[in-house]
Specification:
Length: 208
């Protein structure tokens, strides 16, 4: 929680100073599909077979220009992540829900759009479902928790703008180890990381 608070404070300062330096500001709403997965590393024979879990993303955007083509974009969004069991006939899945804050350096030219930058996300809810059972997932750092609460990583996004409407495709790669801190074993490089392919539409207000 302390790391997330520090990140949000830094974000507010960035927004303030960028806003005072630029006349072009756009606000927007964004929604789309997430194809999420979890990557399990160094689990050996215990490593599960996984496949992408369809979910969704929705939230708001603020974008500010540094120049005619280059600017900064910041969002506050809900992102669904997780994974499905890749075993034939299995209906087991892990659903993870996050509040996510992406920060992107963006390039816009003649309709073309591209962005790259980091994100921070905080787990708010989740469920494990399988064999007719459903169980809530807890986020935290203790031995009793299921996943670490804080996720962070990087996102690359490309797309095209049609007036105020923007269609994009993105890939988000998590860098954070989602195994709770108190469950990590010294000398064992075990990790679970988030990833997601996104397809989304955004509608922007203001600016050019």
């Amino acid at each position: 929680m302390k790391k997330l608070s520090s990140f949000l404070i830094l974000l507010c300062f960035t927004l303030y100073f960028t806003n005072t330096a630029s006349a072009q500001v756009r606000f927007g709403i964004k929604a789309g599909l997430n194809l999420a997965n979890l990557t399990f590393s160094n689990f050996g024979e215990l490593e599960p077979d996984t496949k992408m879990l369809p979910s969704f993303q929705v939230g708001g955007l603020v974008e500010m220009d540094f120049s005619e083509n280059v600017g900064l974009g910041v969002g506050l969004q809900f992102h669904g992540k997780g994974t499905k069991d890749g075993t034939d006939g299995s209906d087991a899945k892990i659903t993870l829900n996050y509040i996510q804050v992406p920060v992107m350096i963006q390039y816009r030219n003649m309709g073309f759009f591209a962005g790259v930058g980091p994100y921070a996300a905080f787990g708010i809810s989740g469920k494990f479902k399988g064999d007719g059972d459903s169980e809530d997932i807890s986020f935290g750092s203790s031995e009793d928790d299921d996943f670490s609460a804080l996720d962070f990583g990087g996102t690359v996004e490309v797309g095209y703008e049609f007036g105020n409407l923007r269609a994009t495709a993105s890939y988000g790669m998590g860098f954070a180890n989602m195994i709770p801190k108190d469950q990590r074993i010294d000398g064992a490089d075990l990790s679970i990381k988030n990833s997601a392919i996104g397809i989304a539409l955004a509608y922007l207000f203001g600016g050019e």
